[in-house]
Amino acid sequence: MDGCVGISRGRIVAVKKLLEGDEHREMPGCVIVPAAVDMHVHFRDPGLTHKGDFTTESRAAAFGGVTTVADMPNTKPPVLTEQALREKLEALKGRSFVDYALYMGMSKGSDVARLGRATGLFKLYTASSTGDMLVGDVHTWTNLLARCAELGGRVTVHAEDQDAIERTVPVGEGLHRHDSSRPAKGEAAAVARACLAARTTGHPGRVHIAHLSCAQALDAFAASGCSAEVTPHHLLLDRRMEELGAFGKVNPPLRTDADRAALWQALDDGRVPVLSSDHAPHTLEEKAKSFADAPSGMPGIETMVPMMMAHVKRGRIALDRLVDACAVRPAAFLGLGARVIEAGAPAHLAAYDLQQVAEVSADALHSRCGWTPYEGQPAVFPALVVGPGGVLVDGGAFQQSRPQGRHVALDIDAMARLG
To answer: 38, 161, 278, 324: which one is catalytic?
Structure first.
């Protein structure tokens, strides 16, 4: 449907067939959608800023049509205390081009009622991964998860089974070996335990399962009432792509082609509601180490929506389902208010011309790490992005010299009642 969107002072003021105003941008042939909310990013700030920082990575986010992010706590130092959270908030002031929420990590002794007064948003690691924030045994982490959900907090879970990882003798080489070292059955077991703990609280919708990677985990998640996400790398890459080497090393691992097909179907039909990037940059030098020594993780925030828009053009996923997965559902889980195009809503918008398909090239991307696992894949990058401070990107050119992104408070009534 043709039409106009009127914007004033950062909010949508009208959506009509025709509008008049002081400034007018023609976007012929473009679809205008709510800008994306990426609820799973690692911007490496503080302490690991040689990989990326909030300024570089938020700029990359804007180029990818993302205007709000939720950043994970496995930084240096990790965000496990109120003091660490306050210090991170202070350090990020005036340094992000997009709005941001911050996760707090959980540890064995976490007082979630007290910490909930600082943030209602938590990340729980049930297995070792980048940053070594493993909480502990199953009894400990399921109790923490349940306590947090009962109090009204939102918990995102990295669900893999540590015991299964430690018991497994991996086979093969490279990506095949990494897949077998962190087995799908272990992921499925951890997902099942997390979902069961969530259901016992009566509030399963307060628990979100990060980066589902395999059909077994999908089965464990089914009908749980929890939220969950898939990532572009688990949709678009698999363990057969050994040419990626350590650049394809990620936790949970790249799985099989059959797992990819199952994830695509679950995203398309809405069984998995959210698409997130799990943007986790490492330097070229770090990833060029031996497979065993290279860190896990890959960049993806700038390419997530553009690559999926190319699949919209191909008919692999519907546009409304993509918008739901990238904007509506993550915003709802984070308590950020509705991401819609209607009067009164925040002016977080992106315009895409689906006829303008390009190939992903690391040389054209903006993350500090300087590489991508998606080299050569088709993508539709946004022609216009509107977010904090107004127009962020126009015709492929960045428009802001000063970061104006804000820390966004979670609009969840239960947060005020924590403790």
So the answer is: 278
